[in-house]
Amino acid sequence: FCGFPLFAESQGNALYPLFLLLFGLLKPWVAYNYYTVLHFLLAGLFTYILARVMHVGKAGALLAGLCYMLAGPVLYHAHHTNIVVGVCWLPLLLALMELACRRRSVLALLGFAAATAALVLGAQPQYTIFCALACGLYLLWRLRMIQLTGARARTVAGLLVAFALAAMLAGMIAAAQLLPLMELVGHTSRAAEQAWPPGINPAVPGNLLTLFLPHYFGSPGLGSYWSDVDCGLYSEATLFLGIAPLFLALVGVLTDRSRRALVFGG
């Protein structure tokens, strides 16, 4: 009854550069359409860049970009642009991490910090956390691979410190958004919840079936729900990527037995 802290909630994108640019130049309903389409295109472009960094051919990289930008979980959230924003930045973060590890590039680290700050300013906080977890796991794996090539512990430690400094720089750039958000979290209703909200209980892995069978529990478009099981929102809980991405991932893992293929195929 006293208003809503839209800026602190962060999904208003008040400081996100692309939001400021488009909504500052165009009418809101026009800007919204361009904003949504732009981030789908960026998801494909950044995946193309990641694939090329991983020495994938141009045709394969183009196919990877198309599969990623048109994957089920991305399309399901076309109406929730903050999630699409979060999804689109992840491939670029991974590409910059790979370049920083491979070339010991300060420029790649600065790019990583800038991209991370953009992610924080534009994405839904939940997807910022998802991206941070994915980047953290990839960094641990990449540092382990560097260690196995005979690199000294000092080299590995130096890279770890460099990424920590890049993350700190990203936090400083996005601090104007992060600090109000962190303060708001402690005042929300979820801060006092003692149990998982319905539909997102992590102890129930049934939704993993939707990785292969998207309509297993039913479809809101077809009105075909058949069970009393609380399977959550369709767009939030359905994992199906598409027939082509699943098939190509399987082919990639079976034909390329390298550690890199297993990591990305998994």
TrEMBL record:
- The record lists the membrane-crossing segments as 32-51, 58-76, 82-99, 106-121, 127-143, 155-179, 233-254
Asked if the keyword Transmembrane helix belongs to this entry, the reply reads yes
| Keywords on record | Membrane, Transmembrane, Transmembrane helix
The keyword Phosphoprotein is assigned to this record: no
Query: Which Pfam families does the UniProt entry name for this protein?
Result: YfhO
Per its UniProt record, what InterPro entries does this chain match? Uncharacterised_YfhO
Protein known as:
Glycosyltransferase RgtA/B/C/D-like domain-containing protein
